[in-house]
């Protein structure tokens, strides 16, 4: 009789242990919060002048449109809106000047447009 009780107790202990082990295995691992801090200089280095600003001002876009129009790439009236015609003109300008043809305004493209 003691043998049966010992066997039942052992089975219960194994079942309880297996249940908690399964819960540990199936639970998603928690990632530790990052303690690494990036400086603004490092963040600025990550974004080179070949990338575009998140938001160009209306005046900057208008300057680009005006310069693109002078070169014959932009056919509309400069309005400061980054629309499909502006992107198409930028892409054509970039291709003609051996630049990556992204159709996006960048610091380097804006500088080149102003220097023409």
List keywords for this structure.
116 residues; mainly alpha
Global morphology: rod-shaped
Give the percentage of residues in beta strands. Answer: under 5%
Distance between the termini: 100 Å
Return the structural class: mainly alpha
Please characterize this protein's 3D structure.
This protein is mainly α and 116 residues long. The chain is built from five helices and no strands. It has helices at residues 2-26, 40-46, 58-70, 84-96, 107-115. The N and C termini lie far apart (100 Å). The relative contact order is 0.11. Residues 37-52 have low confidence and may be disordered.
Short description:
With 116 residues, the chain is mainly alpha-helical. The longest helix has 25 residues, at 2-26. The protein has helices spanning 2-26, 40-46, 58-70, 84-96, 107-115.
Task: Chart the SSEs and their pairings.
Elements: H1 2-26, H2 40-46, H3 58-70, H4 84-96, H5 107-115
């Amino acid at each position: 009789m003691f043998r049966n009780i010992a066997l039942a107790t052992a089975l219960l202990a194994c079942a309880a242990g297996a249940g908690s082990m399964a819960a540990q295995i199936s639970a998603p691992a928690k990632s530790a919060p990052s303690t690494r801090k990036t400086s603004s200089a490092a963040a600025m280095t990550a974004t080179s002048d070949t990338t575009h600003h998140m938001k160009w001002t209306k005046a900057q876009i208008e300057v680009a449109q005006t310069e693109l129009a002078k070169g014959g790439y932009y056919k509309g009236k400069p309005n400061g809106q980054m629309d499909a015609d502006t992107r198409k003109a930028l892409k054509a300008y970039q291709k003609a000047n051996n630049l990556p043809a992204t159709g996006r305004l960048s610091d380097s493209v804006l500088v080149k447009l102003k220097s023409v």
